[in-house]
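pasting for ref
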Amino acid sequence: MTARPIAVVGASAAGLAAAEALRRFGWRGPLTLIGDEPHLPYDRPPLSKQLLHGAWEPEKLLLRTADQLAPLDLDLRLGTRATGLDVATRTLTLDGGVGVPPHERDREGRRSAVPA
């Protein structure tokens, strides 16, 4: 039986922690991390305290670099907003009304994910 895909909506510290925990505890199925900001997950509190005051460079805010995220084998959807969820059909709706049903392949041939 093929594992159902899992989508984590919110590419924040909490969303990243959820994706990392899934992998750490043995989830090997498709895993998508969706975030409406175009940036890799970053630490938000220092944004106003260190970055805007000039004490840090933007790269220092990143929670993980792209190289550190690679082993998680995520379908990383940055700059993509989740706008709805149809529980009955297990379809996650993204920006522009794009529906993501379970196990659908997107335009690039990657598996899309929805909550199980």
